[in-house]
Amino acid sequence: LVSIGNICRSPIAEAVFRKLVTDAKLEHKWRTDSAAVSDWNVGRFPDSRALSCLRNHGIETAHKARQITKEDFQSFDHILCMDESNLRDLNRKSNQVKDCKAKIELLGTYDPQKQLIIEDPYYGNEKDFETVYEQCLRCCKAFLEKYH
Residue 6 in 3-state DSSP? Predict the structure, then answer.
C-alpha cells in the first residue's frame, strides 16, 4: 500500500488490511506493508491524527515510514496506491525493475462506492482522516474478498 509520504493514507490502509486479514485468520497467506514513493518521511511514525483515527477503531500500528524499494516490485503480488500521482510514480519506477511481478493499481479501484481516489488528509482535519479510514476499509474488504 503506497502513498507519497507513508505517514497518513498508506499506514491507515496497511493497518486496516492487516486487521481484516487477522480477523479472518488469514495472516499466514498475506504479507502486508506500506511504503512511500518519496523519501521525505523515512523513519517517522504515522501522523498523530492517523494514529488517533486508527485507535478510535481499535487498531494499533507500530509502522515507520519507508520508501518503496526495487525488491518490493519483485516480491509483492500487488502494490496498491492512493492517487494518480502515486500510480504514475510507481509505474515509472516499476519500468526500471527487472522481473517486476507486482500488479500496480489504485486501491480505490476496489471501492464499492466507486470513489477511485483516496485524497491526502495531511492538510485537513480529523474528519478527513476518518474519510480515509472509511474508504480504506471499504476498499480493503473488497480487495480481500476478491483475492481470498
Answer: coil
Q: Supply the residues annotated as catalytic.
A: 9, 120
CA dist 43 and 26 (Å) reads 28
Look at residue 132 in the predicted model and tell me its pLDDT: 98
pLDDT tens-digit series, residues 83-140: 999 999 999 999 999 999 999 999 999 999 999 999 999 999 999 999 999 999 999 9
Helix then strand then coil, % of the chain, to nearest 5: 45, 10, 45
The single-letter code of the amino acid at 53 is C
Q: For position 148, what pLDDT does the model report?
A: 87
Q: Which domains does the chain possess?
A: 2-147 (3.40.50.2300)
> Rounded distance, CA 113 to CA 33, Å?
25
CA-based Rg of the chain, rounded to a whole angstrom? 14
Residue type, 6: N
Nearest to 74 by CA among 44, 98, 95: 98
